[in-house]
Structures are given as structure tokens and as C-alpha cells.
Amino acid sequence: MRVTVLGAGTMGHGIAQVSAMAGHEVVLRDLEEELVSDGINAIRTNLEGGVERDKVSREEMTATLQRISGETDLETAIDGSDLVVEAVPEKLDLKKSVLSEAEEFLDESAVLATNTSSLSVTDLASTLERPGQFVGLHFFNPVHIMPLVEVIIAERTTAKTRKFATDYVDSIEKTPVVVRDAPGFASSRLGVALSVEAIRMVEEGVASPRDIDNAMELGYNHPMGPLELTDVVGLDVRLDILEYLREELGERFRPPQLLKRKVRAGKEGKKSGEGFYVWEDGEPIGMSGEWSEQ
């Protein structure tokens, strides 16, 4: 299978990596050569880490990188692909624009997919000429580690497209969970509900971020607490999802003021170096704000 990934950021290069590791030929496309190079370099770094931990052989790493090519021209990137996965930032208008443009170059039998954690796949399909060949594929970060992919079925997604999508997810050795297109799907709706309550608890002074996270990790066997996970996902991403879910589902998803203040201050989590925790070299080294001395 030939797979094109539109967007070489965190999710895009992750999707490209797991597709190439599964034996698919992959084209990673972004607007600028530097962005494409950064994405491919991130894949190389991930693979080198896998080699160091004996999770990936040197031969597997070499073969994976050989299956990935970079491209900035959209038509060239899409030409001949069986699957095109859009992985641009979680902005409705941006995604619609990219998807509509991509569809112009799509082969007749090819499938177009969006990687979204909360946006309506039916809405994204509304401007497409072939909505039956469109599906949601919600990957989780980090893509090369997380085993789940939500397959989101829009109102006009065909049974053939659904099978193609689940077969693809199986081929990259992930587990597909098929859900109907609804606000937040299954995972984001439940995950955000937990994280927003944890943020409110910090806001009210109930406990520190570390103690709240420890409670969920040690008491409920979560691999990562909701506040550290929010830092990893990105506070700005959480805020966007909450604002969308509030609009669709009501006030129970109202974003806490603490979250808004942190995002306004540029404290977006791991990627910015500070969120609910302070981050250094990809690891949390302490808590942020009033909890920093505890």
C-alpha cells in the first residue's frame, strides 16, 4: 500500500513511521522542505531510540527510512496513493481546506482520512465530492507506542471504506475501535472529562498536580496521570477540544480559567517546557506555579 501523510508534525511523522514500519511505502508532505526534514529526522530519532532499547533492529530502522520519502508538492505527494491521511493542526477550517484540496488529486479508488481527536468527521466531509471514501482515523500520541486507533464512521462513510480503514489499522499492528461520529468520539470525550476535573481540583487547591496524578496512577492503575497527560497532549489542544465539546454538549465541558490562563501565558505543556509541570529533556522535573516548591 502507498500512504501519503499530510503534515509532518508530531502526529503526522508518527503516522508515517508506523506505516513505513509495517511495510507500506510512505510519502510525508508538508508546506516547506524544512518541515518535512524535521519530520523525517524525528522518525530517525525515534527509531534510533528503539534500536538502543532493543525494540527495533538496525536492519528494520534502515528499511523503514528507505520506505519514507518527503515532498512539498501536494499533487506529487498524493499521486498513486491508496490512502491519504490528513494530520494538520486541529482547526476545522484548516482541515476542510486541506482535505478539499487533497481530494482533487485523489485516485478514484483511494481513501481519504482525517486524524482528529474531536472534530466532527461528518462536518469535515461536508465539502468533499466523495464523502463515502472519507473516514476518521484518530491516532494517539506517541503514535509509535500507543496501540489504539479510533476509526470514526461519518454519516456517509461506506462499508467498503470502513473495512479498508480497519484493515489498514490492523496492518500497522494497532487495535481499531470503531465509533460513530459523535462529539469527542469515545476516547477524547472520556479522557477530557477526567482531565478537566483534575484541572478544577488544582484550581480549587484540593491537591497538587503530582498528588492528583499519583492518585490515578497508583489507585486506578493509569500509566500516566491526567495532568501529566494534559502536558504531553498540550494544554492548547485540551483547551480547543473543551471549547468544541462545550459548544456541542454543554457546560459540563466548560474550560477552567486556570487552563485558559496557562495557555495565554504560553505554558502549553511538554512542548513549551512548562504546563502543570516543568519539563526538561522531555521529562517532568518539577511542578509549575504555586506547587513548584512542594
Give the overall shape, derived from the CA principal axes: globular
End-to-end CA span = 52 Å
Mean pLDDT: 95
Poorly predicted regions: none
Major β-sheet annotation: 8 strands, mixed
Q: Over all CA atoms, what is the radius of gyration? A: 19 Å
What's the total number of strands?
A: 10
The domain tally reads 2
Q: Please bin the fraction of helical residues.
A: 40-55%
The name of the CATH architecture of the largest domain is 3-Layer(aba) Sandwich
Oligomer: single chain
CATH topological fold name of the largest domain: Rossmann fold
Task: Specify the structural class.
Answer: alpha/beta
Q: Give the topology string: H per helix, E per strand.
A: EHEHHEHEHEHEEHEHHHHHEE
SS field, number of helical segments: 12
According to CATH, the homologous superfamily of the largest domain is NAD(P)-binding Rossmann-like Domain
What's the arrangement of strands in the largest beta sheet? Answer: 3-2-1-4-5-6-7-8
Strand content: 15-25%
**The CATH class of the largest domain:** Alpha Beta
Domain 3-hydroxyacyl-CoA dehydrogenase NAD binding: 3-181
Pfam families: 3HCDH (PF00725), 3HCDH_N (PF02737)
Protein name: 3-hydroxybutyryl-CoA dehydrogenase
Keywords: NAD, Oxidoreductase
Can you characterise this structure?
This protein is an alpha/beta fold and 294 residues long. The chain has two domains: 2-180, NAD(P)-binding Rossmann-like Domain (Rossmann fold); 186-287, N-(1-d-carboxylethyl)-l-norvaline Dehydrogenase, domain 2 (Orthogonal Bundle). 46% of the residues lie in helices and 17% in strands. It contains twelve helices and ten strands. The protein has helices at 10-21, 33-52, 58-66, 74-78, 92-103, 121-124, 159-171, 187-203, 209-219, 226-233, 235-249, 257-264; strands at residues 2-6, 25-29, 68-71, 83-86, 111-114, 134-139, 148-153, 175-180, 277-280, 283-287. The protein has an eight-stranded mixed beta sheet with strand order 3-2-1-4-5-6-7-8, sandwiched between helices. Helix 1 links the parallel strand 1 (2-6) and strand 2 (25-29). Helix 8 (187-203) crosses helix 10 (226-233) and helix 8 (187-203) packs across helix 11. The longest helix is centred in the N-terminal third of the chain and has 20 residues, at 33-52. It is globular. Keywords: NAD, Oxidoreductase. Residues 3-181 form the 3-hydroxyacyl-CoA dehydrogenase NAD binding domain. NAD(+) binds at residues 7-12, 30, 90, 95, 117, 141, 271.
